[in-house]
Amino acid sequence: MDTHHIKEEVDKSIEKLAMLRDEVKLQLHLATLDAKQEWNETLEPKVFEVEEAAKQVTESTRSTAKELIARLEDFLVRMRESGGPRSTH
Prior knowledge:
The chain is mainly alpha-helical and 89 residues long. It contains 3 helices and no strands.
């Protein structure tokens, strides 16, 4: 995969991460204390880390961004379904 294609994928992933991050922040006011703790201690720092890593685009960054998108999507599903996610990590 060429660098240009990787950068395009990473850019799209970062946009999606930003959208998911904003959605999580909106949902957190209804979330349980455990959900808020998981966000503050685990997921939010990881979002920041990936956004910073995207400045140095690599295949690893692309993979990490995709992994984090899946984790945030799962986190949102669990928040919506149960009123707050149960810790899985």
